[in-house]
TrEMBL record:
Transmembrane stretches, start-end: none
InterPro entries cross-referenced by the UniProt entry: Aminoglycoside_PTrfase, Kinase-like_dom_sf
Residue ranges of domain Aminoglycoside phosphotransferase in the record: 57-245
Gene3D superfamilies linked: 3.90.1200.10
Lineage per the UniProt record: Bacteria, Pseudomonadati, Pseudomonadota, Alphaproteobacteria, Rhodobacterales
The protein, known as: Phosphotransferase
SUPFAM superfamilies: Protein kinase-like (PK-like)
Length: 318
């Protein structure tokens, strides 16, 4: 995915603000919208702050062929969880208005700070508490949607082997190929094992979690199909382990993050080795992603080297 220049971003933001202003004059639910700053612009989407009847909101435009469907998924994801997560310690934003044909979603702008910023300032003890709270949110979000399935280990081993061949350069192809080989070795270990799927976040990273002293909010919710719960755990584990310099005694992961994410029982009764396997899947995805920065790719490469160097039996860990 091509990156936008600074001037391209400014132009996208200005167009988004003008478009939102025009829609606020024609959509009754948005009458009186006061438009603020543009917060984000990247290919296919613009995020704008605003106020509606004095309350802070976020307006998000999603363009392109799949824009309308993504807005519909956002609406469905929030509608499913809002009755159980509009108050208490684990919450989702309140929906304001969805206009799929316009690629527009308007939701409550929640309080709190991004988990990414909180982690950057936290010592080991505070990091453990923050990530445990994030894990608690995921457990609450998935609750009631779980089902047991047989893990498709052969599918994922083959998927990563095929993806490795698409790497942008020889070094990337070599590392992702080695990851795929290691995953293939685990087929006998994880074949026919029962795991839990649920309606999970789908992009469970510190960028999509906000917190204050009383509550945790998950944002950017649009996944409405069942996926393994371990996918979200591995996503957070890889992100936190590569975003902040940490010791790597356990197959490349941050041991504090690992302990915190497992402390709420998210993966209880899952087969040993499943999280380590899915961590390899996620590392492969990050290394092959064309949208990741050079710094993020470098951090993922460092973690992958540790993950590959640890030859201990997958059955000895989570």
């Amino acid at each position: 995915m091509a990156k936008l220049s600074f001037l391209d971003k400014l132009e996208m933001m200005a167009r988004g603000q003008a478009r939102l202003a025009a829609l606020s004059r024609t959509i009754p639910e948005l009458s009186g919208l006061v438009i603020g700053d543009s917060l984000q612009a990247k290919p296919g989407r613009v995020v704008i702050s605003a106020r509606l009847n004095g309350a802070p909101v976020i307006a998000k435009f999603v363009d392109g062929p799949g824009g309308a469907d993504e807005v519909k998924r956002m609406e469905a994801a929030l509608a499913r969880r809002l009755p159980r997560m509009q108050s208490g310690p684990f919450r989702v934003p309140r929906p304001v208005h969805f206009a799929p044909d316009e690629g527009l979603a308007v939701i409550e702008r929640v309080p709190g700070r991004r988990l990414q910023d909180l982690l950057a300032e936290a010592d080991e003890s505070a990091r453990r508490v923050l990530l445990s709270r994030a894990a608690g949110w995921l457990g609450a979000y998935a609750a009631g949607s779980e089902k047991e399935v047989t893990f498709g280990v052969r599918f994922w081993a083959k998927n990563r082997a095929e993806a490795a061949a698409t790497g942008r350069d020889a070094a990337t192809r070599a590392v992702t190929g080695a990851i795929a080989d290691r995953l293939a070795e685990q087929v006998p270990v994880l074949s026919d094992r029962i795991i839990r799927q649920a309606l999970i976040h789908g992009d469970f990273t510190p960028l999509n979690m906000l917190m204050d002293e009383t509550a945790v909010w998950g944002v950017d919710l649009s996944l409405v199909t069942h996926w393994p719960v371990v996918r979200d755990v591995a996503t957070m584990l890889v992100f936190t382990s590569t975003a902040h310099p940490v010791p790597r005694p356990l197959w490349g992961v941050d041991p504090v993050a690992l302990d915190a994410l497992l402390s709420t029982g998210l993966l209880d009764e899952h087969p040993p080795g499943l999280l380590r396997f899915w961590t390899g899947v996620k590392l492969s995805m990050d290394l092959l992603s064309l949208s990741n920065s050079a710094r993020r790719r470098g951090a993922a490469l460092d973690m992958a080297e540790h993950w590959l160097a640890d030859r201990s039996d997958f059955r000895e860990g989570p």
